[in-house]
Write a structure and sequence with these properties.
The chain is α/β, with parallel strands linked by helices and 328 residues long. It has a domain of 171 residues: Glutathione S-transferase Yfyf (Class Pi), Chain A, domain 2 (Up-down Bundle), CATH 1.20.1050. The protein is 44% helix and 20% strand.
Length: 328
């Protein structure tokens, strides 16, 4: 599906509503008040579609009594349950930060992917960061003279246990996506791409060896909360030596690779939302992208003109402020 319209017409708002309606949150902001029209007290998103052979109805309401969701007319305990039932992946121009940003952005992206690809282990990153936070608090109490080193030991054990689980899960998630990432990048004209997780489990001996330094700084200076993911094309790390066009292709290739894995593992392809994805791609790469998308389920692409997509879309929508029209 291709969604066209002038800049500022509301194309991104349409994609944002699809994301909120299927995932329960906006890819742009975590402040629900920003999703409600100025002057209104609430907002509602209603979606109808199919997940494989099964019909799906979703209603999400914002404002008033808070955020609420219904799936197939059954109230959900929390809107977050939508993510376990429906898969949606989104590309927006700010997603280039996954490649060009710092390690924290890539860790966050990897942990979100981990939760989608390995849902039974999706809570490990949160549990690990909780243990690190508790250890850091214990370290600061020791530094202030309010506690002894014995209070740090239990949290060191937790960091070791959960850190090992997190590193193993991240490696598995990267291993699932890396082959498809290289294949899609090659098809889009970016050769020799690799995805490598850099990190080792935090051993107890290593943590104990730097305990005095950690007490002095009040932080845990070793573990997967400091790891990184290298995204390279040949010998070039794309964060530093990639053009913005190459960084865009790398992010797209990551998204396509994950979508493929989710389709194969779940039997249903995720919904893909691609906002302003074509603006910096030449005609050859636009065509290559369109061919890649053809086998990955429903995709919604935005552009300022229908000429931006070099193939005929299954459906063409035109957006003007406050209105969406089916053109073809």
């Amino acid at each position: 599906m291709l969604v066209t319209g002038r800049n500022g017409a509301g194309k991104t708002n349409l994609l944002e509503s699809l994301h909120v309606g299927t995932q329960g949150f906006s890819p742009r902001t975590r402040m629900d008040a920003q999703l409600i029209r100025a002057g209104a007290s609430s907002a509602r998103i209603s979606l109808r579609g199919r997940r494989g052979d099964t019909g799906v109805e979703v209603d999400v309401t914002l404002g008033g009594e808070g955020k609420r969701a219904e799936l197939n007319r059954a109230k959900l305990r929390s809107v977050e349950q939508l993510r376990r039932e429906l898969s949606t992946l989104v590309f927006t121009p700010d997603r280039l930060a996954v490649v060009k940003g710092g390690p924290a952005v890539r860790r966050a992206y990897l942990d979100r992917s981990l939760a989608r690809l390995l849902p039974s282990r999706g809570s490990i990153p949160i549990e690990y960061l909780g243990a690190v936070g508790q250890r850091n608090a214990a370290l600061r109490r020791v530094a202030a003279g309010h506690s002894s080193l014995d209070a740090v030991a239990p949290w060191t054990d937790q960091v070791v246990r959960l850190g090992e689980a997190l590193v193993g899960s991240r490696r598995e998630a990267v291993g699932l996506v890396a082959p498809g990432f290289a294949e899609h990048a090659e098809a889009l004209g970016l050769s020799g791409c690799t995805l490598v997780y850099e990190g080792e489990p935090p051993g107890r001996e290593a943590l104990e060896a730097r305990l005095a330094r950690d007490v002095e700084r009040g932080t845990t200076g070793l573990g997967p909360h400091l790891d990184d993911v290298l995204i390279c094309a040949g010998s070039r790390e794309l964060r530093t030596f990639g053009s913005q066009g190459e960084q865009r292709l790398a992010v797209l290739s990551l998204l396509l690779a994950e979508a493929e894995v989710l389709r194969d593992r779940n039997g249903v392809a995720p919904l893909l939302l691609l906002d302003d994805v074509l603006s910096e791609l030449d005609e050859h790469r636009r065509l290559a992208l369109a061919e890649r998308l053809s086998g990955l389920g429903q995709t919604v692409v935005t552009a300022t003109s229908s000429a931006a997509l070099p193939v005929t879309p299954a459906q063409l929508l035109a957006v003007t402020p406050g209105q969406v029209e089916v053109v073809a």
